[in-house]
Every structure is written in structure tokens, then in C-alpha cells.
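Following up on my earlier message about adenosine-5-diphosphoribose. Here are the inputs again, as you asked, copied directly from the submission form:
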Amino acid sequence: MLNFKPKNIVILTGAGISAESGISTFRDKNGLWENHDVMDVASPSGFDRNPELVHKFYNQRRNQLNSENVIPNAAHKALAKLEEEFEGEVTIITQNVDNLHERAGSNNVIHMHGELMKMRCVESGKILLWKSDLSVDTKCPCCFKKGNLRPHIVWFGEFPLFMDKIEKKLNDCDLFISIGTSGQVYPAAMFVNMVKANNQLAIEANIEETNISESFDFHLTGKASEVITKLVSDILAL
Ligand code: APR
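Thanks, got it. Here's what our run produced:
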């Protein structure tokens, strides 16, 4: 599959890479969007309508991420090993809001959909680390007002973060690997098209074919923990 030694690898991850760590994906069977109305819990209008419901949704996800049985899996660890040992640059662009890449040891991580362990003041825009529950009665540490804190998550209808930086990374890379994403949410779903427009190599790793599989040069079918561990050792052996 790889007949050259890449210099600049960009990796896009989705919920599938965290599935084996026990974190629900969104669109698989019994996924998050099967049990919640997206517009109620992951949109600005939903937050305006019922902020307590939104805080409850993210408190549950934050508590799950904080529990000791949710830890980085072999795929997260393999990507951290790649960043550590690969001679070129490795950038992870993640759609995930969990911190499992960082906890596995990856440093060069771009969270385009925000982070579960961060909050934002709606008045000042200040971003704060936050591990515990949040409610409408929580006083914001920066303006001391109740009701001013929201999850630092990109909701439907809002712009993803760091898109300028992401675009440059995609233009500069010579290998693009997409892991565990259904390719149903833009702009992440079109990153492969941007890479292919520069004639760079694109690999998709997923347990099944996706809507965008035909845009990739190769599709690696299997669990991320197995497939990515093998792919990383192949890349490091080049
Ligand atoms: N290994 C590899 N892939 C897996 C695994 C696994 N163990 N388990 C599931 N998958 C794949 C599924 O086949 C599916 O294609 O992961 C993908 C998960 O897709 P989604 O649930 O749609 O998650 P994602 O693509 O990350 O969603 C993108 O949508 O709702 C928004 O903001 C949310 O960031 C999210 C975005």
C-alpha cells in the first residue's frame, strides 16, 4: 500500500476510534443520536430553549469520560507512538471531544468540534478547563454570573474550529488517514477531496464502508485498535 516514505501525515479521527474505549458513537446502532434529538442537545437553539437539558447531556458524557474504565485504546496509543517515533510531522485532526488522544500521549491534536473538558463564557468568550458537572446555576469564574457558561463544543449550525490551520495541514500533507468516521458531517467529510485534489495518498480505516469510501485510495476494514496498530508499524518500518 505504501510505496514511499511520507514526510507529513495528517490523521482525521471520528467517534469510531473511541468506540473500543467504551464511548458511544453517534450513528451506529444505539448511538447517541438514536437516544437524543440532536437539535435539543447539540444546537444553539436547543441550548436557548432548555439549557438544563443540554448541561445534563454533556454532564453525562463528561462523567463517562472521567470514569476510570474509559481509557485510551490501542489505536490512540499507536497514533501517539507514530507521533513519537516518526521522523516527519504527524497531526491529528479530531472530530471527537474526548481527551483520549492526549491521554495516550499525542500532543499535536486539533479539536475541530471542541472539547468536553472545556467550558466557554458566552459573554467574554473565555475558554476554561472544566471537569465537573455544570448547571444553569453555576457561576462563571470570569464574570461571576449564573447561566453564562456553555460547553466548549461546536454545535450543529456553528463553525468548526481551527479551519485555517486545518486547511494548511491538509494542503501540506503527503499522507491522509481517516479513522472511524462515517463521513456524514461537513467539512470533515470533504477533507479527503482536498487531499486528493493535491494528488496525495488517502487511506480510510473503518469497520465498514462509508459514504465517502470511494474517494480514498485504500480502505482498511477492521477495528481501529487492530488496523491502526498494524498501519503504524508498517509506516514506522518504511
Ligand atoms: N473501529 C473503526 N471504526 C469504527 C469502530 C471501530 N471499533 N466502531 C465504529 N466505527 C465507525 C462506524 O462504522 C462509523 O462509520 O465509526 C464511525 C462513527 O460514525 P459517527 O457515529 O457518525 O461518528 P463521526 O463520524 O465521528 O461523527 C462526526 O457528527 O454528530 C456529529 O459532532 C459530531 O463529531 C461528530 C460528527
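One observation from looking it over: Residues 28-69+119-153 form a domain with the SIR2/SIRT2 'Small Domain' fold (CATH 3.30.1600.10). Hope that helps, and feel free to reply on this thread.
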